TrEMBL record:
Gene3D superfamilies: Medium-chain alcohol dehydrogenases, catalytic domain. Residues 13-313 form the Enoyl reductase (ER) domain. InterPro entries: ADH-like_C, ADH-like_N, ER, GroES-like_sf, NAD(P)-bd_dom_sf, Zinc_ADH-like. SMART domains: PKS_ER. This is NADPH:quinone reductase-like Zn-dependent oxidoreductase. SUPFAM superfamilies: GroES-like, NAD(P)-binding Rossmann-fold domains. It comes from Micromonospora ureilytica. It comes from the Bacteria. Pfam families: ADH_N, ADH_zinc_N. Coiled coil: none annotated. Transmembrane segments: none annotated. PANTHER family: DEHYDROGENASE, PUTATIVE (AFU_ORTHOLOGUE AFUA_2G13270)-RELATED, PTHR45033.
Length: 317
């Protein structure tokens, strides 16, 4: 079957490590796994990290990339794939598709049957394919970790990204005052259109916020600390621009801040997210929908840094 996979690692030029070509059909490793016929997927920064060699070893190559998927189960029903799989031996106890088990950028993928969630009525496959990784991460950052129900205001850093646009759209839909930074003026205009107050990175906000959504890391972390209200939660799920920021501990203890790490979310949280989006007519922010036949273009778009929202791949085109 046709697939997009990491055939080697290239830290400086991750696109050069991407191969699109033939791979063997998936072989479910246990009786409770099934094969899903893929209909739509979306890219994540995770796929670029994998091509750079972050989180994978040479022994795991070639590795089919892709975490997100919507497809048809063996009975032909449309399903959303929850991408976290129990993985004995991994220090986290789990892994995300494309780490230990083949990913979704292929014609078919094998997953545990219990990882399949019915596609909500009326939701397009290309929209739902945005939800299981970036949107699920943003949902957990806001709800379980950030306890946004008790918050009035939220700051989202690097708001052009997949997780960040999700956090903006969800927090606005929840009725919060949302501030968002982006380095790019055009992206700031688009963030404003989502209902947030867009500012330049590092700009002083009109108020200190209760929840900060951090996926950028070193480039924005000091601003996150300075923008946090007393007792605020700074929730971190990524570090695109550096994972070793300097942290002013005086500010952490004096303002009684909580810095919380998080990854992905639970199946229950994915059900909650799907229901929230369906009930509130919230739809993912989609940068582009690109046919699977041009999957290399999709990677180039994500790598360019110009994308606003999710880069989606249509496997039916
Ligand atoms: N832990 C988890 O479960 C989990 C899940 C999903 C993602 N992640 C992580 O979260 C991060 C974002 O993922 P994503 O898929 O949303 O990535 P993405 O779509 O590529 O977004 C990255 C965003 O970060 C901002 N950024 C990049 N470099 C920056 C810099 N030097 N200074 C300021 N801002 C910068 C950009 O925002 P502007 O252009 O708007 O400034 C960019 O749009 C990645 O590191 C990813 O690995 C973690």
């Amino acid at each position: 079957m046709r697939a997009a996979f990491a055939s080697r690692f290239d830290d400086a030029d991750p696109l050069a490590a991407l191969t699109v070509g033939e791979r063997p059909e998936p072989t479910p490793p246990a009786d409770d796994w099934v094969t899903v016929e893929l209909r739509a997927t979306s890219l994540n920064h995770h796929d670029l990290w994998s091509l750079r060699g972050v989180g994978l070893t040479e022994a795991q190559l070639p590795m089919i990339l892709g975490c997100d998927a919507v497809g048809l189960d063996p009975e032909g029903r449309p399903v959303v794939v929850y991408p976290v799989v129990v993985t004995p031996g991994d220090p986290r106890g789990v892994s995300i598709l494309s780490e230990h088990f083949s990913g979704t950028l292929a014609e078919r993928v094998a997953v545990p049957r219990s990882n399949l969630i019915p596609l909500p009525d009326g939701m397009a496959a290309t929209d739902a394919a945005c939800l299981p990784t970036a949107w699920l991460t943003a949902w957990r950052m806001l709800t379980t970790k950030g306890r946004v129900a008790d918050a009035d205001s939220v700051l989202v850093q690097g708001a052009g990204g997949g997780v960040a646009t999700a956090a903006v759209a969800l927090a606005v839909a929840m009725g919060k005052r949302v501030y968002a930074t982006s380095r790019d003026a055009a992206k700031r205009d688009r963030i404003s259109a989502l209902g947030a107050t867009a500012v330049e990175p590092g700009a002083r906000l009109p108020e200190r916020v209760d929840v900060v959504i951090e996926t950028v890391g070193a480039a924005t972390f000091d601003h996150s600390l300075k923008s946090a209200a007393p007792m605020a939660r700074i929730v971190v799920s990524g570090a695109t621009a550096g994972h070793e920021p300097s942290v002013n501990l005086r500010r952490v203890f004096a303002m009684q801040l909580e810095i919380l790490g998080t990854s992905m979310g639970t199946p229950g949280e994915l059900y909650e997210l799907l229901a929230f989006c369906a009930d509130n007519e919230v739809r993912p922010v989609v940068d582009s929908v690109i046919p699977f036949s041009r999957v290399e273009d999709a990677f180039a778009r994500l790598h360019s840094g110009d994308a606003f929202g999710k880069v989606v791949i249509d496997h039916t085109a």
